[in-house]
Amino acid sequence: MNLTANVYSLTSGGSSSSSSGASVNSLLSRRRHRHRRNLSLGAPTGTSSTEASPLSTLSLDRKTFLRQKQTKQLQASDRTWVRAELRRGCIHVHDWLSPSYPRPVLCTLDTSAAEVASSPSPALFLQLHGGAVRRLADDEAPLQILNDYLAHLGFDDPWRVQEEGMNPEIGCLIRFYFGKPRCVGGSERVQLSGVFNVRKGKLALPVNRWSRRQVTLSGTCLIVSSVKHAHTGKMHILPLIGGKVEDVKRHSHCLAFSSAGAQSQTYYVSYDSYTELLRWHKAASKIASQRVNSVDLSCCSLEELPTQLFYSQDLTHLNLKNNFLSPHKGVPALTRFCQLRSVSLANNALSHFPLALCDLSSLSELNLSGNYLSALPADIGTMHSLQNLLLDGNSLSWLPVELASLEGLTYLGLSFNCFSSVPAVLEKLRGMERLCLAGNHLSVLDVAGLQWLPARFVDLRLNRLQKVTSLDTGELLHVVHLDVRDAGLQQLDVSSLCRLELIRCDRNALSLLRVNGHALKALHATHNGTVVQPTPENLTVLDLSWNKLDRVPDWLCDCSRLEVLDINHNCVSELPVRLLSSVGLRKLLVGWNNMCRLPERLERSQLEILDLQHNLLMELPHNLFIKAQSLRYLNASANKLEGLPAASLSEEASGSLEELYLTNNNLTDKCIPLLTGHAHLRVLHLAYNQLQTFIASKLARLEQLEELDLSGNRLKAVPTTILSCQRLHSLSAHSNCINAFPEVLQLPEIKCVDLSCNELTEVTLPEALPPKLLELDLTGNPRLSLDHKSLDNIRCFRVDPSSSAPCVSENLGTPAIWSHSYTEASGLKNKLCVAALALDSFCGSREALYGVFDGDRNVEVPYLLQCTMGDVLAEELHRGHKEEDYMTNTFLTMQRKLGTAGQRMGGSAALCHIRHDSLVPGEHGGCFTLKTANVGRCQAVLCRDGKAVQLSTVHTVRDDDEYQRIRQHNAIVTEDNKVGGVTECTRIMGYSFLCPSVTPRPHVSTVTLTPQDEFFLLGSSGLWEVLSPCEAVEAVRNVPDSLAAAKKLVTLAQSYGCSESLSAVVVKLSITDDCCCFCEPPPPPPSPGLATPTHPYEGGIPLPPVSSGTVSELSSEFSTSEMSSEVGSTASSEEPLPQTEPITSHLNPAGRASARRPAFGGGAFQRQFSGALSDNGLDSEDEEPIAGVFSNGSRVEVEADVHCLRRRDGTNAPLPPEPPQTPPPCFPSPGAESRSGTLGRRARANGSVARQGQNQDVIEEAGDAPIRKQGGYFNAPSQPDPDDQLIIPPELEEEVRQIIQQQQEQQQLQTHNQQTHNYQKTSDYFVTPL
Fold first, then answer.
1. Over the Cα atoms of the chain, what is R_g?
2. CA-CA distance, 1319 to 544, in Å (whole number)?
3. Residue in 60, 70, 64 with CA at minimum distance from that of residue 14
4. For 1126-1173, how does the pLDDT look when each residue is reduced to its tens digit (9 = 90+)?
5. Three-state DSSP class for 524?
């Protein structure tokens, strides 16, 4: 079988107007040699590629595009051939001219790139995660590369790897090209080029005339050809560094380029469009504003340097990172730059040192990190001007002796190499200041050997130091900075380093640390058991958190220069009297200890920040605020306080306290009058105390208040004097007994109001809402009567769903086995970067799905995960092969979905799936199991018999197995302990550019639910930074309402110091012995038309039930046509292939269709979250919302009902009648929720609130889509680039107008004929206006 010939070519779809379109294209093609045009990307492809493709004025509609795409898909016979053997497979190859249309190529593991290309030119290229493009060698096997990539991603099953390789959407992660694509390689970044009207000199002189010339912006220069053709004649070079780029007002679309200096010259360039002018102005202004002659050509897929770059002879700094320059091709051309001082060749896959670099005599900085160098040549000793040499992330194990001749070398980076000892040649580099050997194979720290090294800064972190040899006699005078974090040390004696100023020894197993304290200024020794000897006299910063200290060393009181002391998470029971009165101490962190009291009487203190949370304090010193006049921040949450000290000696005096956190104490109403002395108070948290009233007159005196939290008390009202707090922007008073709506909406700065879980009966709204109001949460008020119709235009409301709204939980009123509630809170800059997924009925009444997603500071990623992860999980369940891997495959598939959406950022995720498993196959009795999977720092915890059971694991570089894995892929851990400087987690969603070091393969755990299981929690990453699993379980165990429990977790986290976005899901369980022993009617037999496949994935992806919301995902959605290179952008995607209604209605897998289908008419499905949102779109106040349509910048989201199978004409497809079924009494009814489970509306990051949907799918369509279309969630195509529009020269304009007019007349005639016969056919294309 000829594998290389089995490539499918694109054929044009037949249409009634294809001949007329071809005539237009052919007529314009005859003049293409005379005029240059910027062509449209949406050109229809005719039978002749030479005529139809280059010049096209007609753009395809989606129907024709799908038909042409279908001709390039794998046929059934090809899939059968591939599945017959594991060594076979398929790669999708994109053409370098039209990368949007991938072509499948059948091959085996032995098929080479030369055989796939079938000719030397064009060659086969490889692109990973939308980055640089690499040329494949002729002997490389593309299918083996694809399989290895998927295996490193996390797929274990070879059959699943084979199936994933046949999916064209995998191109968003790994893509093959026939020839180097034009859109990749940075040709647009390297230069801007075109033929424009150019004039030299002053515009006022009539001697100079406009001439048509080739103009190129490359490097640091503007290049203008002296003749019309650029490749002949002389080139005029205009250096732009320090020059000017100005817009000429007297001429339209004209820029003036001027060089710097006394002999400056000026060129005027007139552009054809305003868009072209903006592009050139932006690029040229960036060059002109530079102070040095630097050029950035990183990530341009360069194999050799661009020719135009050599016109910049004064180039001094050149960045060539992340390219594919070889030592024999590309790098030797650098010798043509005689003034080059800095070169970066990092991540260029160099296998040996380029000798051409030794000829650059002026080079002072060289970066060769991230390559595959195993040795350095002896010629490196000739580079006498070299000062900084970066060799991190290579395979070096020794250094040549000639390196000693580099007397000017001050910095040498050797981290993450293969050194087993400190190279001896370093002793001769007397000018070296920094020695970086982190991440090597050092086993011995020879302190005595440091005396021969001149380096002042030594970095030895992430080694495995098993032994430390100390210096017997003498002292070392030159080492001032020592970093030995994560080195596995048990004892460390560096007392001989008498001038050591900073030492970092975090996360070791130290039991004894000896330092010379005469010069020591900063000591960081977290996660140890540390004793410091002798006393450091000049210490300013001391971090001893997460140790086992039972008391504070007495010598700390003698450190008069100590400014910051962190002893959080220890076992300290009391503080020395002199410590709080230390003259220099400004910041004291003593949270999470065992302190029962503080010194009663304090002397004058200079403290500004005091953290006392999570102790056993019953009172604070009575003169704390009087003596600590500089105190601005006090956190005494999670103690047993019953009162507060006086703020000052008199009522007129006031302290400087600005933030006061007293959550989770035993404070009563008596403490309220004591707060009035803090006139500068901005933040006040009094949640979860025993307050019953808040004296109105006292609240009126807190005029500077901006944030007030009174949640979890017994308040019946909020004082009306809150109107005195004109700066208040956040009020939280949930979980109280408030029965009257406060007048808080009259405050001008108010943004967030949370009055959920109270006893409100009515809400009084002002005529005009505050302009900055983002959220008003009124959920959990059962007696609140609202007219939901009157609230339709108010976007910021969160209310319980109307009792008249259809809900699947109303059928028969069966008791629920589980119920849930969740809450979310925005973080910095009011950005909501978290999302929750909660489905009490998922794939049937015996299943449920819950999840929490955290995008760190990214808004789009969590919402993408929220909207698609449930559908992907349902898809994996219906595959029916190796069900124990369905959770893992769900996360791995979501990595592809994020790539399809154009997302390069990532986030954490935790997913919990409850399902009923039969004890014996074929029988219907069994038990409920809870399967949990997580990546990143989102975690889940189960409460079993009152104790916390951890269900999740966080993978970081601190784990030995994970560290070894990422080092196998040559990853670098930066000083902030992040992989590649991006993320601390080695397993997390997204960040595909860090693959395979960072993978989305989750940690999966399975537990069998028992009657002892009370509830389980899911929380975002910020929640677990301040709350331990045991504390979280204990905090909400006695809270009966799940919404109040979720609110409490978020409130506690905020009061404990978390400033990030937060999300918490609480799922109450009511598991009984009877719930695991029920029987149900047997599932219906499979359809006679569906044969059972023998191959594990032979049938492809079975169609899920209609109500699962995954029809679109299983219908071959559009794969991404173009990868976006910008972080957070949205790439174009495709629409699922059309399916006939009988297939969608009847071909459901046995046993699941009836379980997921709603019982009431219309097919609505209860939905608890909005679609994927973006913070880069229009603000909520910019325009009125359209019902069912959500805008998010570059795309539009449309809520469409896919469960009712609506036709194009708006009618519902007939559904087969279903007999009524009575669920077992112990089933959770489909969609059964707690009273406050559904939030109705949820605030988005820009302040708008999405309506509660009635289905499980969100469809994104192009902004001009005339109708709703059937399908699932996918990303809308990117907005068209204004530069990619057809440009018609003036001399052809009239002729083109006539052609278009004739075309329109023919279309109108055809339309009239069709209407005469009562048949209307959709046009295959639309005429593009010129």
1. 34
2. 81
3. 64
4. 333 333 334 344 443 333 333 333 333 333 333 333 333 332 333 333
5. strand
